[in-house]
Amino acid sequence: MAKISRRKFLHLTGAASASLTVASHASTFTSSVSPVRNPADSWLEIDLNNLGWNLAQIRARVNNRPVMAVIKANAYGHGLLEVGKFLERQKIAFLAVGKLEEALQLRAAGVKTPILNLGPFAQTESEEIVRQNISQSIYTDDFVLLAEAGRKLKRDARVHVKIDTGLGRVGVPYDQASAFIEKLGSRRAIKIDGVFTAFTEDDAFDRLQLQRLQEIYEAASAKRIALGLQHAASSAGVISFPESHLDMVRPGIAIYGQYPSTKAYQERRIDLRPVMSLKTRVMYVKTLRPGESVSYHRAFTAQTATRVATIAIGYSDGYPYQAAGKAEVLIHGRRWPSIALVTSNHMTIDVTGDEQVKIGDEVVLFGKQGQSEISAEELAAWAGTSVYKILIWMNPLMPRVFV
Question: How many angstroms separate the CA atoms of 62 and 241, rounded?
Fold first, then answer.
């Protein structure tokens, strides 16, 4: 098998996730025209109208402060390039990514919006960061590499200073931040675009974290060191911690119409609309006689005559195998239970009682079908996981249909 580089692979998968756009939702339960090339394939529908709606709701929630949209992890599974381009058309202030490769893909696709790389970088990538006008998260003396690249290219390297105010993963320790900022501020060819932190999402401790960040900012201002924009609020902060909105907010999951916690989902202080739906089609239908079984290890054995629909989706597509036997799907606008196992490429559904279910019928794993809906939150509960993982687990090679 021919080898391809990591960059080539990421480029190909990014392109695959952004290759299909259609004008409107597939609204019928059975269609002779598939939105993807292979009518047996599963696909993700990405509703750009809902994406725009969510951004508008967030902007209203934060009194039109600038928004830095987090589009790391293939835009939480939604498709990096299409989402990035759409948000640019919505005049988003900043985009944030988790890997430099994502920022480079966006630039190669023509995205001009300011981009912050939240992840690390290698010495060999310093010049490309500066050349592509990418802001880099900084919390170690690696900023020297960017300053050297800036001097060589005769343009400022742009940075955001990451402060660890208590989350404990990465960042300049808050009690060392003032000294670090003084050292950084004295460097030529460095432009500080912002200073930021990430909350623990423990309400009382988050307030202490916010206080620490603001004290650092004020100390720098007193020494005439410009730190640019302060930002700390993720989706949870946007929704329930208005004091943390500062100069700019940094939502991720809320952009995609999902809530950052079960509590936020139940309270719904902001009206978010899911952007992603997961769909497939019935690929086979049969009736099991009593005593006949389905799947490995005879995971399901029929006690009575059981009509079973096999659908072409499994854990290789990102569907959680932990949901086996608990998840439901929508066919003909009605919920039907899954049976047996979620395997690599297949699931089986008990459709006993509906003789009209046939090969080619649309199946919704999460999303809407007619007046019925299964939420990604429900699927996460069936799988014993979080809605974040449900979205991000979606295979980047699965077709995305932008509607």
Answer: 10
Amino acid at the residue 246: L
List the domain range (segments joined by +) for residue 13: 6-44+274-402
Catalytic residue among 72, 162, 279, 368: 72
Of 144, 142, 134, 136, residue with least CA distance to 111: 134
DSSP classification of residue 188: T
Q: Is 66 exposed, middle or buried (0-12, 13-18, 19+ CB in 10 A)?
A: middle
315 among known catalytic residues: no
Which pLDDT belongs to residue 183? Answer: 96
Residue range 36-60, pLDDT digits in tens: 777 668 999 999 999 999 999 999 9
Task: Mark whether 72 is an active-site residue.
Answer: yes
Percent of the chain whose predicted confidence (pLDDT) is above 70: 91
pLDDT band at 28 (very low <50, low <70, confident <90, very high): very low
Of 236, 270, 269, nearest to 387 by C-alpha is 236
At 95, the amino acid letter reads: L
Considering the domain architecture, whether residues 313 and 189 belong to the same structural domain is answered as no
Same domain, residue pair 278 and 328: yes
Is residue 269 situated within a structural domain?
no
The helix or strand, by DSSP H or E, that contains position 152, with its residue range, turns out to be helix 143-153
Report the number of distinct structural domains present in the chain.
2
52: which 2 tokens?
Answer: 């725009």
Query: Is residue 35 located within the same domain as residue 113?
Result: no
Give the chain's length. Answer: 403
Question: Among 162, 296, 321, 358, which one carries the catalytic annotation?
Answer: 296
CA 304, chain centre distance (Å): 43
Nearest to 165 by CA among 116, 98, 126, 213: 213
Question: Hey, what amino acid is at 227?
Answer: L
The CATH number linked to 328 is: 2.40.37.10
* 350, β-bridge pairs: 308
Domain boundary, last residue among 236, 263, 290: 263
Contact in structure between 283 and 47 (CB atoms under 8 Å): no
Reduced to 3 states, what is the DSSP secondary structure of residue 362? strand
Give the bridge partners for 294, in sequence order.
300
CB 340 within 8 A of CB 310: no
Q: Are residues 152 and 64 in the same domain?
A: yes
